[in-house]
Specification:
- The chain is an all-alpha fold and about 300 residues long.
- Helix content is about 75%, strand content about 5%.
- The chain has 11 helices and 3 strands.
- A 3-stranded mixed β-sheet has the order 2-1-3.
- Helix 2 packs across helix 10.
Length: about 300
C-alpha cells in the first residue's frame, strides 16, 4: 500500500446534512447528555450519602450510574461538537481511543447488569442466604472482575480492528468510531475480525443473556407463589432491569452481527444510539421512578443542596 492511500484520519457522519435542521440533532443529544449526567450523578450522590442504601443492590447501581456517565461521554460530546462546528474529522489515534473506551464501557455495563440480575435472584429466591452470598467481598471482587474483563475485551477487539489497513475510504458512516463501520471501509481481509466478533458475541453476550434469563426464570417462578402485594413489589424491582437489558442486548447484537456495508444507513445510527445513549439515559429514570427508597434519598440530596445554597 502506498503512502498516498494510507488513512491518517477519519470523517464521522451525522444524522442529517441539511443546514436548516442540522442543529436539532446535537441539541437533542446535548439535552439527553445533560439529563443523563444529572440523573446518574443524583443516584451516585444519594446511594453514597444515604446509609440505608449501603446494600449490594445499590452498590452495583451506584457503580453502573458512574459507568453510564462515562459511557455516554465517550460518544455524545464529540458528536455534538462535530455537528455544530461542521468539523467531522477524527484522528486515527482518537478513533482507536474512542473505540477502546466504547467497547470497555459496553462490556462492563453488560457484566454489571448480569451481576445485578444475580443480586435480584438471591434477594428474592434465597433471602435468608442473601447476606452470606452477596457479601462485601463478593461485591468488590465482582466489580474488579468486570473492570478487568472489560479492559481485556476492549484491548483485543481494538487491537484486532486497527491492525487492518484502511485505504478504500476514510468516511465512517456512523457518528462515532465503531467496529462494523470500520470493517466496512477496510481494504484488508476482515474474515478473522468478523469471526472474532461472532464468537465473542455468542460467548460473551450470549452467556450473559443466558445467565440473566435463568435468573429471572427462577425469580418469576418464585414470585408466582408470593401474595399479590409482595408479587407486585418484586415485579416493580425486576421489570426495569429487564427493560434495560433487553434494549441494550437486542440493539448491540443486531448492529454487530449484521453484515457490514460501506454505505450510509440512518437506521444503523439510530440503533447504535439505543445501546450507547438510551441505556445511560434510561437508568436513572427507571430506577428512581420505580424505587421509593431512591426517590426519598434523591429528594434529601436536593433539599440539602438547596439548603446549602441558601
Amino acid at each position: 500500500m502506498t503512502n498516498s492511500t494510507m488513512v491518517t484520519e477519519f470523517l464521522l457522519m451525522g444524522f442529517v446534512d441539511k443546514e436548516e435542521i442540522r442543529f436539532l440533532q446535537p441539541m437533542l443529544f446535548l439535552l439527553m447528555y445533560l439529563a443523563t449526567l444529572l440523573g446518574n450523578l443524583l443516584i451516585v450522590s444519594a446511594t453514597t450519602l444515604d446509609q440505608n442504601l449501603h446494600t449490594p443492590m445499590y452498590f452495583f447501581l451506584r457503580n453502573m450510574s458512574f459507568l453510564d456517565m462515562c459511557f455516554i461521554s465517550v460518544t455524545v460530546p464529540n458528536a455534538c461538537v462535530n455537528s455544530l462546528t461542521g468539523n467531522r474529522a477524527i484522528s486515527l489515534a482518537g478513533c482507536a481511543t474512542q473505540l477502546f473506551l466504547l467497547i470497555y464501557c459496553a462490556c462492563v455495563e453488560l457484566l454489571f447488569l448480569t451481576v445485578m440480575a444475580r443480586d435480584r435472584y438471591v434477594a428474592i429466591c434465597q433471602p435468608l442466604l442473601y447476606p452470606v452470598i452477596m457479601n462485601q467481598r463478593f461485591c468488590v471482587w465482582a466489580t474488579l472482575f468486570s473492570l478487568l474483563s472489560g479492559l481485556i475485551y476492549a484491548a483485543v477487539h481494538t487491537g484486532n480492528t486497527f491492525r487492518l489497513s484502511f485505504c478504500r475510504s476514510n468516511v465512517i458512516y456512523q457518528f462515532f468510531c465503531d467496529i462494523p463501520p470500520l470493517l466496512s471501509i477496510s481494504c484488508s481481509d476482515t474474515f478473522n475480525n468478523i469471526l472474532l466478533l461472532i464468537v465473542s458475541d455468542i460467548v460473551f453476550c450470549g452467556g450473559c443473556f443466558f445467565f440473566i434469563t435463568m435468573s429471572y426464570f427462577h425469580i418469576f417462578s418464585t414470585v408466582r407463589k408470593f401474595p399479590t402485594r409482595e408479587r407486585g413489589k418484586a415485579f416493580s424491582t425486576c421489570v426495569p432491569h429487564i427493560l434495560v437489558v433487553s434494549v441494550f442486548l437486542i440493539t448491540i447484537t443486531y448492529v454487530y452481527l449484521k453484515p457490514s456495508v460501506a454505505s450510509e444507513t440512518i437506521q444503523d445510527m439510530i440503533l447504535s444510539s439505543f445501546y450507547t445513549i438510551v441505556p445511560p439515559f434510561l437508568n436513572p429514570i427507571i430506577y428512581s421512578l420505580r424505587n421509593k427508597q431512591v426517590k426519598d434519598a434523591v429528594r434529601k440530596v436536593l433539599i440539602n443542596f438547596v439548603s446549602g445554597k441558601q
